[in-house]
Amino acid sequence: MNEEHQFNIRQIQRALRILHKNGEDVPIVFEDGIFGEETERAVIAFQALYGLAPNGIVDYETWTLLMEAANRHIAGNAEPFPIFPYVSDEESSVLPDEEGKAIYFIQAMLIAIGEKYSGFDGVTLSGKNDEATKNAIIKIHRITEGETTDGSLSRRTWNSVARLFNAI
Fold this sequence. Notes:
By secondary structure, this protein is an all-alpha fold. The chain folds into 2 domains: 9-77, Muramoyl-pentapeptide Carboxypeptidase, domain 1; 101-167, no CATH class. The protein has helices spanning 9-21, 37-49, 60-77, 101-116, 131-144, 155-167. The longest helix is centred in the middle third of the chain and has 18 residues, at 60-77. The model has no long low-confidence stretch (mean pLDDT 87).
């Protein structure tokens, strides 16, 4: 370990473990906080793999590359971020045979619902409140509200579709 730079040994070991677990040709190390022979071997393997002088010393360049490599694996394995689509009041009302941005989201949810429940056939991502979309909206209203509508997209329809979508 270089005297100039006192990097956290457990962080070094954690990063090396991440690389090992993600298929990098770096020996497995334990996070014990001790920079022993096992950790030094893993650092040397890392340095050789990443084009650095394989001396086992964790200097600033080694530390930086090691953290960047581990973070790339962490980011690549992270859970996808959820999205929370929002449509304004003007965009949330779409009559049958009209087009609108909100219809794309509704259609995507209806397609997913149709993979679990029957009766949502023919819905495609078109952005138009076409016959298949209108029929699916009517069906959703019957299921969730117990009433029939004309198949228009409204805030109430959005909420009904979103509740069913979130339930699956």
